[in-house]
Amino acid sequence: ICENLFVVADTSTTVTLDPCNSDLDFIIQPDELKDWNDEKVKVICENLFVVADTSTTVTLDPCNSDLDFIIQPDGLGGSPLTDGGLAYLLSGTKATWGVKKGKYFYECKIEEELSTDLPETEECPYLVRVGWSPLEGTMVVGEERFSFGYENSGKKVNGKSKEDYGQEYTVGDIITCYIDLSSDSKTISFTKNGENMSQAFVIDDTTERLFFPHVTTKNIRISFNFGSQPSSFPPEEGYSFIQEAAEEERDYAVTAPTSKGDCEVIFTVGLPGSGKTNWIGRQMAKYPEKRYTVLGVSQLVDRMKATGLPDRMKQFTQWSEIKEIYCAWC
């Protein structure tokens, strides 16, 4: 099935069955294959079948990731797709475990700036925000009240507010993300390569809320250490890897579907202004446990926006430019 995704008929020299003129459920044998040896193609195929084991280890969660964020097979790293206009998008992912009590940390390493076709005039070709967020909410770190992040610009971001905080960071740097939920004064702090950047946030919340490791990236490959390896630098006193979280102080993300029968696809059809968007919003609010992913133009535009970034929409002069990126994203 994976191979069939990349079947391309060569009409110049031979006659073959044509996947572009076949029913979707008719599987053409892969006599002709496009770039099957391309490592990117292999990773995309492998990622289709990544299922996080939430029972014993912490990994990145494919059920709580943007569709264009490709998680590597071990679940401990990944990168966004960067082909064409996809390089304009922000991509996020969260971990399979969250914590509600105690003092825990994890490490995030900036591995590589990926090549793109972005113009030289692009103001922000590379971005990373790493931090902590609840399970619900946007995939962009720092854009909501209880989402807290440290950006590669050196800024801290929370609730769509960006402030000076620490040092800039780049490829090769390791950011350690700490959260202290052991008392009424809940705090979040970060270190860069073991150097303490001081306290970043005080969480003003009396509710027992789960916070998950969360990263947003633009054209950068990253990796994580949740506790499967020794820490790169001595941790702050009293903190443990999230992998070591006590059972009563942690919880898991939503369980991944085990079959197609557990999944649901809804395709809305209607005239402009007929209420499709409002209906989708009500459906998502009514069934939050289904965790729908919405593919729509407004969602695409939101993926190009974040606090402190230029207004992307002002740079597009034709609808065709948006349509090209939207089709690639879908």
3D architecture notes:
By secondary structure, the protein is mainly beta. It is 11% helix and 28% strand. The chain contains four helices and 17 strands. It has helices at 39-47, 276-286, 297-302, 319-329; strands spanning 60-65, 69-71, 77-80, 91-95, 97-99, 102-113, 127-133, 148-151, 155-158, 161-164, 174-181, 186-192, 195-203, 212-218, 220-225, 240-241, 250-252. The strands form three sheets. Strands 2, 3, 6, 11, 12, 13, 15 and 16 form an eight-stranded mixed beta sheet that branches. Strands 1-4-14-7-8-9-10 form a seven-stranded antiparallel beta sheet, with no helix packed on it. A hairpin with a 3-residue loop joins strand 8 (148-151) and strand 9 (155-158). The longest helix is centred in the C-terminal third of the chain and has 11 residues, at 276-286. The chain is globular, with a radius of gyration of 21 Å. The model has no long low-confidence stretch (mean pLDDT 85).
